[in-house]
C-alpha cells in the first residue's frame, strides 16, 4: 500500500508494509540482505506509480546533503545533464538515463525543480529513524533527509536549511513534514547518552512508557526547526515500533526499509 499526502504543495508518498511474515516484505533498501533484483523491481514500480524518476541515497547516518538541479547549459547535450553538488564537489548525471543513476553518497537531497518539468522525486529509506520532508516555493524546491540520531545531532537539518537559503528561500517559506519514526515513548537509550544529548538539545530528553530514559527525536527536530524560523512543521505521530504497517529495526533487526518519497511540483511561473 502507498499512502499519498502533501507538504507545501508537493506530493508526499509513504510506502507501507503489507501483511505477512517476512521482515523484508515491501522492502526498498539494498543494504539489508534482500534480493537486489526484487528491490530494484520495487523501486522501478514506485517510479512508475508516481510518474517520475527517483533519486536514491546510500544512507550512512551522515549529515551530508546534496543539491540536485539542471546543469543550466545552453546546448542540448548540456541541458540533458543533471548537476549534483555535494560539499565542494560537482558531478553530473544524464537526465536521459535516470534508471542508471547511482545512489548518492549522502543522507539528504534537495531538488530545485524550478524550470525543470520532470525533476526527480527524493526517496528516504527508514526503519525507525526520522524521514524529514521539506517543501518551498509552491512545492518546486523540495528535500528529503534521513535524520537518525547521529545525523540529526550532527546538523543535517541545519545543513538542509542552509542549502534552501543558498537558493533564496528562507526558513519561514518552508513547510516541513516529519514522517513516521520511532516515538519518544519507545526510543529507549542509556541514561548517559540522554544526558549528553540533552545538554545540546534539551527537548530531546524523554521517558519511555515503562519509565526509562529515552530520546524524542521528532519533538527535538520540530523544536530545532521552529528555532531556525520554520513556521509550518507537522509531526506524523505514528510510531514505527508500535505500528506494524512500518518497518522497525528495533522491533526486528532483520527488517527492511520503508520509503518517504517527495515529488516536486512544476509550474511554468
Automatic annotation (TrEMBL):
Q: CDD domains this protein is in?
A: YfiH (cd16833)
Q: Name one GO molecular function term.
A: copper ion binding
Return any one Pfam family short name: Cu-oxidase_4
The organism's place on the tree of life at top rank = Bacteria
Keywords of the record: Copper, Hydrolase, Metal-binding, Transferase, Zinc
Instruction: Please list the reactions this protein catalyses.
Output: adenosine + phosphate = alpha-D-ribose 1-phosphate + adenine; S-methyl-5'-thioadenosine + phosphate = 5-(methylsulfanyl)-alpha-D-ribose 1-phosphate + adenine; adenosine + H2O + H(+) = inosine + NH4(+); inosine + phosphate = alpha-D-ribose 1-phosphate + hypoxanthine
Q: Which SUPFAM superfamilies match?
A: CNF1/YfiH-like putative cysteine hydrolases
Write out the similarity annotation: Belongs to the purine nucleoside phosphorylase YfiH/LACC1 family.
What is its biological role? Purine nucleoside enzyme that catalyzes the phosphorolysis of adenosine and inosine nucleosides, yielding D-ribose 1-phosphate and the respective free bases, adenine and hypoxanthine. Also catalyzes the phosphorolysis of S-methyl-5'-thioadenosine into adenine and S-methyl-5-thio-alpha-D-ribose 1-phosphate. Also has adenosine deaminase activity.
Protein known as:
Laccase domain-containing protein
- Native source organism of the sequence: Schaalia canis
Amino acid at each position: 500500500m502507498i499512502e499519498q499526502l502533501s507538504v507545501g504543495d508537493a506530493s508526499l508518498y509513504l510506502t507501507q508494509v503489507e501483511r505477512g511474515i517476512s521482515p523484508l516484505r515491501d522492502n526498498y533498501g539494498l543494504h539489508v540482505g534482500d534480493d537486489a533484483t526484487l528491490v530494484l523491481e520495487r523501486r522501478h514500480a514506485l517510479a512508475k506509480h508516481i510518474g517520475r524518476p527517483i533519486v536514491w541515497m546510500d544512507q550512512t547516518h551522515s549529515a551530508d546533503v546534496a543539491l540536485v538541479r539542471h546543469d543550466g547549459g545552453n546546448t542540448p547535450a548540456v541541458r540533458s545533464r543533471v548537476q549534483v553538488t555535494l560539499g565542494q564537489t560537482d558531478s553530473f548525471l544524464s537526465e536521459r538515463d535516470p534508471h542508471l543513476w547511482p545512489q548518492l553518497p549522502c543522507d539528504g537531497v534537495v531538488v530545485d525543480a524550478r524550470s525543470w518539468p520532470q525533476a526527480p522525486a527524493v526517496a528516504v529509506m527508514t526503519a525507525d529513524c526520522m524521514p524529514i520532508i521539506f517543501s518551498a516555493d509552491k512545492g518546486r524546491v523540495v528535500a528529503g533527509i534521513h535524520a537518525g540520531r547521529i545525523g540529526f545531532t550532527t546538523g543535517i537539518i541545519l545543513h538542509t536549511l542552509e542549502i534552501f537559503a543558498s537558493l533564496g528561500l528562507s526558513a519561514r517559506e518552508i513547510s516541513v513534514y516529519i514522517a513516521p519514526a520511532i516515538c519518544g515513548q519507545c526510543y529507549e537509550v542509556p541514561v548517559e547518552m540522554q544526558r549528553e544529548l540533552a545538554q545540546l538539545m534539551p527537548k530531546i530528553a524523554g521517558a519511555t512508557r515503562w519509565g526509562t530514559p529515552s530520546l524524542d527525536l521528532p519533538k527535538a527536530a520540530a523544536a530545532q526547526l521552529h528555532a531556525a524560523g520554520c513556521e509550518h512543521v507537522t509531526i506524523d505521530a505514528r510510531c514505527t515500533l508500535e505500528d506494524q504497517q512500518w518497518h522497525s529495526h528495533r522491533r526486528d533487526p532483520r527488517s527492511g526499509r520503508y520509503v518517504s518519497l517527495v515529488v516536486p511540483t512544476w509550474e511554468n511561473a
